[in-house]
Amino acid sequence: MFKKILIANRGEIACRVIKTARRMGIKTVAVYSEADRNAVHVEMADEAVLIGPAPAAQSYLIAEKIIEAAKKTGAEAIHPGYGFLSENAGFAEALKKEGIAFIGPNIEAIKAMGDKIESKKAAAEARVSTVPGYLGVIESPEQAITIANDIGYPVMIKASAGGGGKGMRIARSADEVREGFLTSTAEAKSSFGDDRVFIEKFVENPRHIEIQVLGDKHGNVVYVFERECSIQRRNQKVIEEAPSPFLDEATRKAMGEQAVALSKAVNYESAGTVEFIVDPEKNFYFLEMNTRLQVEHPVTEMITGLDLVELMIRVAYGEKLPFKQEDLKINGWAVESRVYAEDPFRKFLPSIGRLVKYRPPVEGPRLNGTIVRNDTGTEEGGEISMFYDPMIAKLVTWGPTREAAIDAQAAALDAFYIDGIEHNIPFLSALMQHPRWREGNLSTGFIAEEYPDGFKHREPEGEEREVLVAVAAWIDHINNIRRRHISGQLPHAVGLRLGAARIVQFGKVEQPVVLAGDYKSGTTVTFTDAEGNPQKTVAFETHWWFGKPVWHGKVDGKEVSVQVRVIPNGFDLSYNGVRTKAYVYTNREAELTALMPEKKVADTSKKLLCPMPGLVISISVEEGQEVKEGEQLAIVEAMKMQNVLKAERDVTVTKLRAKPGDSLAVDAVIMEFA
Description:
Elements: E1 4-7, H1 11-23, E2 27-33, H2 40-44, E3 47-52, H3 63-73, E4 77-79, H4 89-98, E5 101-102, H5 107-114, H6 116-125, E6 133-134, H7 141-151, E7 155-159, E8 168-171, H8 174-192, E9 197-201, E10 207-215, E11 221-233, E12 236-242, H9 249-265, E13 270-278, E14 284-290, H10 297-304, H11 308-317, E15 333-340, E16 342-343, E17 349-350, E18 353-354, E19 357-359, E20 364-365, E21 371-376, E22 383-384, E23 391-399, H12 402-414, E24 417-419, H13 425-433, H14 435-439, H15 446-450, H16 462-484, E25 501-506, E26 509-518, E27 522-528, E28 534-541, E29 550-555, E30 558-567, E31 570-575, E32 578-585, H17 587-593, E33 607-609, E34 614-619, E35 626-627, E36 632-638, E37 641-646, E38 651-656, E39 663-664, E40 669-673
Helix pairs in contact: 4-5, 5-6, 7-8, 12-13
């Protein structure tokens, strides 16, 4: 077995590979850019080598620097992770020349499958179902429009060397093809160093279902069942699960056998994924093959008990797969949520900065028979950089049934506490409660269909509201007890009893309550009407104490986790995808608060503000120009994604405050309007 391997990647996947290598007794070498000098993967590895400045194009994408680091440290093999150089045949060829093993497929398979255009040609030759499209290289927006008109709308524009949702656009008109071609080629060039794109028919209401395959150097190939990846936003996967709630055994077998046939056609070895789109009638079409480990591989590991990273390493060393197709079985269900540094309440715009607090849920088995796993590459105090993918962590839960896995995921998300940057946990939590998701009625258009106006704050209702009211009142109650015992804070506090009546306010809604008991003997919260007449009483069981970021306990016997952030006169609470401010007052405080004037919000309607920290790629207008609603104003790039900013109404540009090449902070003024 290899004695030392280098991981040519960063973040959570680098940490993931290091964990398996450590368990196998293999020494590891990390590489890092200047931005990642203090990253977790650097600390975890046995050795680490600096390979260049922060931009990936000057560090993680330079094969020569990776190879030099391997030779310098004596690494016998390189695991590329995903992204960066993982599907770069030139990199694999360079390693072969240097006598360094590549922990991935053979060069011919990478060439045939890693290029999206060539892979579709190979799939057609192997008699795998494919989507109608144009597989030649497209030179201009005009040619793209002509091709799209011939195929028929809608179409999908995709980067040939792409992956991870980069360089992909759906177009339903010639104008959208023109815009999509320009942004897709730019993203592809930035992310993969290859600006080629192709166009294919976009299948309406499809599911995205992929088959995990494993091959060795001895001609053995198996499929390790499927993953459902239909919950996507901007072609970027958000939630994955295994198995799919849609497939029957016959369809699963047919898809698996086609995936194996395609793999054998290119003598595939190592882990790989054959992706399909599946229509509502269970017709499936080859989408692409990823000749690498997938981001979402943990859900497959959870339902099979396999370690895909270990198998990749053993195959690269020349070992045979230790099982046959008939040995593989599905056990239970697994769900994965991708925790991203983005603001779901501001159209999912990227968020960068320091993780002031980072408290993931505890990993491992639960008493109810479920399991929690968190794959991450960051820690409290770590920096989320604008130079790389916005992923913070992959939260995975396993249960004996799909419902159990989803419930475990919902509970784990409620317990996942992050401060310092914006993140998508409220959105993920809301998805876990969505009836359509729980029914398994999915398509790649799920998010766009269910949240057409974006994800918005909602006021808590029903059981959610009762839990949050009771928790807010209880926290306020024990905080008063705590302060009563702080020396000098309340003179003559001995024997002092605080009033039990409180008013909990969410927005304009007020709920009077009365508390009884204390944190030692147990507390009850009684909901009353405006006259103080009792309506309902809830009881608490908890060992929580003021200062812990997540309130854990039971409310009327139900296990509950509520995130708590202290604000003046109350608490910012998160539960079940609801994030709301709860203000807790005595009756007199509520009377006085009602007399306070409301703070006016600054008018920014005549300015275009930068919605995220990023780089200005282009300004599409000039001073004095009249712009119609929906027309492009500027393009800002952040975290390898290009964001087109459009006019929200008819305006006249009066002043440009930024130019291409400027690095802007969030809410920086790009231009002003009349």
